[in-house]
Amino acid sequence: MIPPWMSILVRGVILLVVGYALQELSATTECGHGFYKSPQGKCCELCRAGMYKAMDCIADGMSALCEQCPRGRFMDRDSQEEECTQCSICGPGEEVAVNCSVAQDTVCRCMEGLQRDGNSGICLPEESHPGSSRITKTLK
User: Fold this and answer.
1) Into how many domains does the chain fold?
2) Which of 20, 82, 100, 102 could form a disulfide with 106, with the two C-beta atoms 3.0–4.6 Å apart?
3) Residue 50, helix vs strand vs coil
């Protein structure tokens, strides 16, 4: 049997999580799609993919101050993130299929003669794993 204090604790944690989720949803819906609520209470337009937020907007409905991701970094969605994500590097047995850009991470594929193992995700010689393929993967 579960002690009464444990049940109360679990309910409290659930209420905290639900409350936080509702607060985040409220801030998003309060400002509308494509906007976020700044710490100052302003509804700012999100930065577009390929950009990061350098500063919040100064008035409701305005754009945040957004800057392009620097070389070697990307942002693949509209966001209010304050820094871009580091571009991934292909692993052993992989080659670049699509270079990283400000709006997309590196896409890697297995080198010629290798296939991606379905279980481990690594590139192995084709004859080792007949059920594998030379599929391309996007790193994250």
Assistant:
1) 2
2) 100
3) coil
pLDDT of residue 136: 52
Last residue of a domain, one of 86, 113, 129: 86
Its domain, for residue 53, covers: 32-86
- Mean pLDDT (whole number) for 54-62: 95
Per the CB < 8 A criterion, the answer to whether 22 and 15 are in contact is: no
Q: Which two tokens stand for residue 74?
A: 């990307």
Torsion of CA 21, 52, 96, 129, to 10 degrees: -10
8 found inside a domain: no
Q: Which CATH number does the domain housing residue 112 bear?
A: 2.10.50
pLDDT exceeds 50 at position 134: no
Q: Is residue 49 part of a domain?
A: yes
Residue 77 domain-assigned (yes or no): yes
CA 136/CA 95 separation, integer angstroms = 10
Q: What is the pLDDT of residue 27?
A: 42
Mean confidence (pLDDT) of the chain = 82
The residue to which tokens 């998003």 are assigned: 28
- Could you tell me if residue 71 is inside a domain? yes
Q: Compute the Cα dihedral for 57, 63, 69, 70 and give only its sign.
A: negative
Q: Which residues pair with 94 in a beta bridge?
A: 110
